Amino acid sequence: MSRTEILDSVDEAVAGIEDGSTVLVGGFGFAGMPFDLIDGLIRQGATDLTVVSNNAGNGEVGLAALLKAGRVRKVVCSFPRQSDSYVFDELYRSGRIELEVVPQGNLAERLRAAGAGVGAFFTPTGAGTMLAEGKETRSIDGRDYVLEYPIKGDVALIGAHHADEMGNLVYRKTARNFGPVMATAAATTIVQVAEVVAIGSLDPEVVVTPGIFVDRVVAVPARRYTVEGAR
Amino acid sequence: MSRTEILDSVDEAVAGIEDGSTVLVGGFGFAGMPFDLIDGLIRQGATDLTVVSNNAGNGEVGLAALLKAGRVRKVVCSFPRQSDSYVFDELYRSGRIELEVVPQGNLAERLRAAGAGVGAFFTPTGAGTMLAEGKETRSIDGRDYVLEYPIKGDVALIGAHHADEMGNLVYRKTARNFGPVMATAAATTIVQVAEVVAIGSLDPEVVVTPGIFVDRVVAVPARRYTVEGAR
Amino acid sequence: MPLTPHELAAVVARDIPPFSYVNLGIGQPTKVAEHLRPESGIVLHTENGMLNMGPAAVGDEVDPDLTNAGKVPVTELPGASYFHHADSFMMMRGGHLDVCVLGAFQVSAVGDLANWHTGAPDAIPAVGGAMDLAIGAKQVFVLMTLLDKQGRPKLVPACTYPVTALGCVSRVYTDHAVFDVGPGGAVVRETFGVSVDELRGWLDMPLTQP
Amino acid sequence: MPLTPHELAAVVARDIPPFSYVNLGIGQPTKVAEHLRPESGIVLHTENGMLNMGPAAVGDEVDPDLTNAGKVPVTELPGASYFHHADSFMMMRGGHLDVCVLGAFQVSAVGDLANWHTGAPDAIPAVGGAMDLAIGAKQVFVLMTLLDKQGRPKLVPACTYPVTALGCVSRVYTDHAVFDVGPGGAVVRETFGVSVDELRGWLDMPLTQP
């Protein structure tokens, strides 16, 4: 038993997400993307969302489906423009969605800062560029830095490989990407995994996200999108 | 083959450390303390060192032996005062060593900042206390923060469990402590391990410190100090 | 009758909600662990890099690579995890722990904490994780005697010792009474063989009752 | 004769020191990997969380959980490691990579880089890891054609496109020549079927020779 809830269905896992929430969505392209949780969020109905994710959706599945359903007010991401990001493109060009572009490493670090209780930090990334316009800058030891603030989520939706019943998580290969930092940065972290294993089944040395960061877990059958589908 | 040097002796591993260096020393009490590297550093002879470590030595072994040998100008640590820290105590009271006390979490985060290329960061730890005197402070979203700067090392001396021949490291239990952050924060990271294993022997999912952070590795026979000895 | 340290540790343990993630400070707070029921699902954090720490190690269990923050050998429970110091203090600073139990020299009515430095001019300063722990949990409980060895109150209108953090303490467990502290001042929650008026006689501050 | 893209990728590969930790940007720089000799001990980093990345996956090797930064399926080599995004970008921002190879729209004589935005008013801005990569290696190599499709130089006195980072590029590999750039301006290291005086005719900047 632990504070982490192990739930039987995706719909239970995404219950209670409120309109206007900031939702952190893991994944880099399709790797680590919590497709089932996003589908659940679409069914759940929350709207006026701010979504923080590396990309802004591919094709018409996952994040793109959420955007297409009209639930997203703003996207905070590093790279919205992909060959198959036409759902986002159309919303953006027609002025129906806001966009904040954040360099990928600053995105990861701002999420980490939220999880780590850091109030703000000086990063060299973006200094001297148009993405630093209007931001506080400072020269430290002869190098230029931009002050960046944490990005906190109300909810994080994450895909991981296995969870134990305490919510400890392990990931698989490059599907790890944003999951571990987003798990720390949200008030409520919801994780879909391929399998929930018994307490004691994960070696304590190899846990990547300790259960303290994990609120809800649901196991879903593997549903792999082909990589071709992701382009 | 890799950039990481796998060396046959402790003396080769610590060769070239210069007088006046800032040396990051891993370990928390005796767990993870790189005893053999410190002994090697004493033989090597570098002096006028600034040592960054959580404690300031126990008994007359390890860090305490380095202090006793008169090689340390300044200690940066969170907790110098222990029941058996008499070597440090005497140096400090007689004005022969400088001390900078840093809250333990700020110490870890300042080391991480050095490794992560963060120019400075606002931390709530220490705000409103005498350890914040003279430092820049700021209120962010109604909370008080202190601006802290990175702590960079010229050299890090670290104890880990196993290394592979590319310098990838795994640790053991709470002996992990400061090793992974110090490895990122030093120009030259030197590691003693119980065993060097072949490339391919470590599961890529469980590597804690990737070899990119590791410059030199030496395997030394286990030499465990009893915990009684550490008090 | 005032509580013994053992009894007081049990009172603290009773008040920690099930399934909480908890850090117990070095010294007396460590004793709270002895009173946590396994079925409570409470998970102990130790800032040197572990969650789900078990009891002190005995005999062959002793492993120099596995200690608590007081450098005492401990054990691991099923479901444990290990992590490095930056990640460990991220858990604290980021507010992920539910409860932290600390000792103190002084606590003020508004929850300022002094527990790292007596202010003695010849003391070697040493803070360890005290400041990080003080700011790093959703609730900070202090466990201390109400009076020091000279009979002076340790619950004070304002700390005279150097502070560890401001306004961080939410509750103070003492041998004579339990107090909530915070912006509204001290509130007596529970007394042990003493009346609230008697407490008012000892303490130099207004005391309210819930 | 100007070099083909294939030949130019080989020139870049030749110049990367053995045992370097290297990030190859999306697009043309990715091709440099094909020219790295296994015995060089060069380790490839991909910013989506891996060191010692192997070649593109083929057939049964394809695993949706294992891609490079361009989202192309790749393989892992022995001695690989995986890590999360904050740790991955820490490697870059902290200056731990030896070499990063990037494409560019423009590079200035002092090493300013423009490779993320054409400045077109209707373009959807998208930066990805470009700014982190630009500031995040001990040496940043740019691999590009010397002239754009309209015949205009891409090595320029000052970038007219929005910059990715200032003063970050150390060397520029083009089909016609290789240049060092930096505070001292552009230095011609090597030419491919063109004289330095001809280059001077094309480029609007002083060119020196080592």
From TrEMBL, chains A, B:
Gene3D superfamilies to which the protein is assigned, alphabetical: Glutaconate Coenzyme A-transferase
UniProt entry tagged with the keyword Transferase: yes
Similarity-based family: Belongs to the 3-oxoacid CoA-transferase subunit A family.
PANTHER family in the cross-refs: ACETATE COA-TRANSFERASE SUBUNIT ALPHA, KETOACID-COENZYME A TRANSFERASE
SMART domains tied to this protein: CoA_trans
Protein name: 3-oxoacid CoA-transferase subunit A
InterPro entries, alphabetized: 3-oxoacid_CoA-transf_A (IPR012792), CoA_trans_fam_I (IPR004165), CoA_transf_BS (IPR004163), NagB/RpiA_transferase-like (IPR037171)
Keywords from the UniProt entry: Transferase
Top-level taxon in the UniProt lineage: Bacteria
UniProtKB/TrEMBL annotation, chains C, D:
One matching Pfam family: CoA_trans
Listed SMART domains: CoA_trans (SM00882)
Keywords: Transferase
Domain of life from the UniProt record: Bacteria
SUPFAM superfamilies the record matches: NagB/RpiA/CoA transferase-like (SSF100950)
Family stated for the protein in its record: Belongs to the 3-oxoacid CoA-transferase subunit B family.
Name this protein carries in UniProt: 3-oxoacid CoA-transferase subunit B
Organism of origin: Intrasporangium calvum
